[in-house]
User: Fold this.
Amino acid sequence: MAAAAGVVLLVAGCGSEGGADKGGSGSGGSSSAGSNATGGSGGSGDQKPDADAVTAEIEAAATGAGFAQDASGEDVAPELKDCMVTWTADAEKAADPVKSYGATVATLTGGGWKEARSFEQNSSVIKTLEKGGWTLQASNHATGPVKLVMFVAADSGPECAAKIAADNKKSVKP
Assistant:
């Protein structure tokens, strides 16, 4: 569900000691998933891609790098389908999930996604990519006991940020 994907977006941007903020945004490592400050950068045209286009880009890059999609990956809540996409790789089936992750990110950055931040801790790597008003968290946790490679993208515009925040608020139990 969307709450877990939202947590990935929030966690990926927090606590970036040891990470590199390549965007020069001065954000101190905070998540830009709900920020409009990074929207519109990257990409070759002025038209903002929709969720289907973002999904197609992620899927083409990941499958081209040797990943298959994990059928049991996260589903996005219906009310967030235009604002968020998830693509979970079946890292167990990839010949070399670390190499495939690197190749996926390289393909995405070659396609106009700009790397804003990179965070490494223990054996996990999380890269934040931005393009056309979307923020993508590319997470690689494939070298630990749980093999997880996940790509979660969110529309950075204020309308989608509000929808995602509302969904996260109702999904998190005190």
Notes: The two ends are 18 Å apart (CA to CA). The longest strand covers residues 114-121. The chain is about 30% helix and 20% strand.
